[in-house]
Amino acid sequence: MDAFTPQQTIELVSRIGTKKAHMRLDKLWWNSFMAGPLLGFGCALLMSTGASPWYQENAPGLIRTISAVGFPVGADLFTSNVMFMSTALLHRRISVLDLLKNWVVSFFGNLAGSLFFMAIITGYGGIFEETPIYKQAAITLVISKAQTPHWHQIFLRGIAANWLVCLAVFLSIQARDVASKILAIWFPTFTFVALAFDHVVANMFIIPQGIWAGAPFGAGYYIWKSMIPTLLGKIVGGGLFVGVAYWYLYLTGEMVSVTFDPSSLPAAMEAGGPMRRTLTEKDRDTSHQNGGTIHGLDPEEQLGQRQLPQSGTQMMSSIGRELSDDSPYTKTHAERVKQGREESSEEKV
User: Fold this and answer.
1) Where does it reside (predicted)?
2) Cα 50 from chain centroid (whole Å)
3) Residues 231, 229: Cα–Cα separation, whole Å
4) Could you report the per-residue pLDDT of 14-68, keeping only the tens digit for each?
C-alpha cells in the first residue's frame, strides 16, 4: 500500500509543525489571510444552496448534505495548526512561545481574510441581496448557529468539527498521491458540514455575513456566543483528540524513521513539491550533444544524474527532503538552541 503508516504520519505532523513554527511571520500572516477567502467560497456556496425554502421545511437533512458536497475548500487554517503545533510542542521540537505566535497570527490572519471576502466580495457585491430568499437564508443560518444553541453546545460542536478537520489533514498527509489526498480531505470535511458542526474560521464568514444581512445581534454577541466557544472547542478537538492522542499512541518512547525514497514516479511526488533538478538547462543540452556524457562529472555521478524515476533519490520532492530524517525539523527545540549557540561560538573563534 503506497501510504505512510499512522506512526510515520504523526511524525510528519510533528515535523510540519516545527517547520511552521519557523516560518517568517509576514509569510504566515499572508498565507493565513489568503486562506480566509478560499474557505469563504465554500461558505458562500453552502449559504446559497441552503436558500431553498421547500427543502428547509420538508427535507433539511437532504439540503445539508447537498450543501456539504461543495464545501471542502480551504488552505492554511488555524484549525489544522492546532494539531500541527500541539504535536510539535509535545515532541519538544518547539517552545510554548512558538506555538502561541503561530496560533495568534494564523487566527487573526484567517479572520482578516474572511472579513475582507465577506465585506468586499459578497457584501458590497450583493451576492445575498438578489432576492429576499437569499437574505433571509443568511439570517436564518446565523440564528441557528449563534443564537439558538447554548454556549456549551457550540463549544461541543466546535470540538467535533476540528476532530474531523484534523483527521482530514492527518489522512491527507498519510496519502502520497494527489488524488488520494483530495479524497482523504473530502469525506471528513463533508461529514462535519453535513452534521452542522461549528468551524471557527467558517463562522468568521458566515456569521458576519448574516449580521450584514440584518441578523438581530451584533459583533459583541457573535464574539462571546460563537467565536470564543468555537475557538476553545477547536483547541480541544484538534489538539487533544488528534494531536495528543496520536502523539501518545505512536510517538511516546519511539524513534520513527520516515523515508521519501520513491519506488515509482507517483511515490516520488508524495509531498507535492517540485522535483529535484541537479542539472541546468545548459548542462542538459550539452549532454544530449555529447551522447549523454556530462563533462566535469565522474562516471558514477553521471549515472546518478541519469537515474530513472524507479531507481533512487534523484526524484525526491523538495518537501520530502525538508521533512526527511536528517532535516533540522527532526531536532528538539533544546537541540536546535544548543546547535545555534555552538555555531555562534565557532564564528566568534
Assistant:
1) Membrane
2) 26
3) 5
4) 999 999 999 999 999 999 999 999 999 988 888 888 777 766 666 666 766 766 6
Which CA distances in Å does 160 have to 153, 181, 332?
11, 21, 31
Fill in the amino acid letter for 128: F
| Residue closest to 66 by CA, chosen among 82, 91, 48 | 48
**Alpha-carbon span 334 to 23, nearest angstrom:** 18
3-state secondary structure 272-314: CCCECCCCCHHHHHHHHHCCCCCCCCCHHHHHHHCCCHHHCHH
Q: CB of 4 within 8 A of CB of 44?
A: no
213 CA to centre of own chain? 30
CA distances from residue 9 to 160, 171, 250 in whole angstroms, order as listed:
21, 8, 9
Torsion, Cα of 20, 25, 30, 31 (10° steps):
0
pTM of the model: 0.76
Do residues 75 and 172 make contact, with C-beta atoms less than 8 angstroms apart? Answer: no
Phi/psi at 128 (5° precision): -105, 25
| Beta carbons of 46 and 68 less than 8 angstroms apart | yes
**Residue 261 corresponds to which cell in the numbers above?**
525514497
Tally the residues of the chain.
349
Distance (Å) of CA 35 to CA 49, 73, 104, 111, 199: 22, 9, 15, 10, 14
